[in-house]
Amino acid sequence: MTYCVGMMLDQGIAFMSDTRTNAGLDNISTFTKMTTWEMPGDRVLTVMTAGNLATTQSVISLLDERTKAPDERAPTLLEVPSMFQAARLVAETLREVIARQGDEGQRADSAFNATIILGGQIAGGPPRLFLIYPEGNFIEAGQDTAFFQIGEMKYGRPILVRAYDRQMKFDEAMKLLLVSFDSTLKANLTVGAPFDFHLYETDSLRKGREGRIEEDDPFFLKIRHGWSAALKTALDNLDDFEL
Amino acid sequence: MTYCVGMMLDQGIAFMSDTRTNAGLDNISTFTKMTTWEMPGDRVLTVMTAGNLATTQSVISLLDERTKAPDERAPTLLEVPSMFQAARLVAETLREVIARQGDEGQRADSAFNATIILGGQIAGGPPRLFLIYPEGNFIEAGQDTAFFQIGEMKYGRPILVRAYDRQMKFDEAMKLLLVSFDSTLKANLTVGAPFDFHLYETDSLRKGREGRIEEDDPFFLKIRHGWSAALKTALDNLDDFEL
């Protein structure tokens, strides 16, 4: 499995993804699930993927190759005029890859499905965030639901639902994301560190701060221990049930 | 879906279950998922069920009917000599019901599967807690994993994993359970109040405190609001990420 979160903030968009892939429980590897395309001053697009690794890698490679092959007739991610068109392009590529694997008669225990988060900004429009389904349709983050999760999302959801706030700054958002990732990590073997992140700043039209949080990253360790202790304190501070 | 938790404590066993059942999203009802059999001074057995409602009701009815039909040849829940034998009996009844529905050619979108938590004590043995699978096998709570969840368990798991402690008293355990149920409720429509609970006290060999927590129960409302606030405070108290 996988765990990725994309989060709209007034300050910009925060992206975080884990890096564990597994085929069975004894075949685990580290792959990045986050890819960013940038044309400074014009656009920044970040894609995070969850699902069948062959499918997601194929989608990313196709999207990437097309940006480098100027003779392709179809517009590429570096040429589409809007974020909406970018979402359509990614969605079509995803559907195409899934359909092709189906056509060629491949069968496996797990489906070839994948789900994608796409976020970014293209000059002339605001930052936008999309969740793209394997069927090739997609939804956009709005005022009410301003973050998307894909993959193993349940363990890390309660804290996001409660603490997310559009006005958060990136430094708080990173903390919230790491708490959410830690909850997932603690409960599920198929989500693993390191975690990749990208913090895109609204209207900057260039890559924001990017990086990778290792499992032994001092800040992450502080979060892990601090959060366990803080949760226990929070629980202690609630009144006990009166029997 | 469903959410039930059974938790071994030094003080006894705490059971809590939600009461929502649904067939689709627009056909929801309230059914209790917790049943307790008692022979004061000899045994107390509590069963919680998750899964296909027809299956679980059938299992409970069969178990119950047999305790009332003294001519049945098979031993009943009120006669088996140990908790282990009680678990075998419940497991066999479950497998039997699932198999019979399969045999009779019934087919539905959802499987007839169900999962059961059984806990209690029979005179002469210690309190024991079992998780029974649809296949008819089962596992017992030990020192390391001393609680079981069934149904929609992921949302409510992180707080249990972090805060559970065998030495908790029932008043703290109720608080922890309600926080875990609240996290699930907040994230998933198919888990709903009221919640049933039973707190069996070690070596009492009679029913402990039982009851039902309604959605507008003042203590539960206090937990809900208090916990949201406490989580936000806990998060605020962690250092922000240094960008």
TrEMBL record, chains A, B:
> Which species?
Shimia marina
**InterPro entries referenced in this protein's UniProt entry, alphabetically:** Ntn_hydrolases_N, UCP009120_prtse
SUPFAM superfamilies reported for this sequence:
N-terminal nucleophile aminohydrolases (Ntn hydrolases) (SSF56235)
Which protein is depicted?
A: Proteasome endopeptidase complex, archaeal, beta subunit
Q: Which domain of life is it from?
A: Bacteria
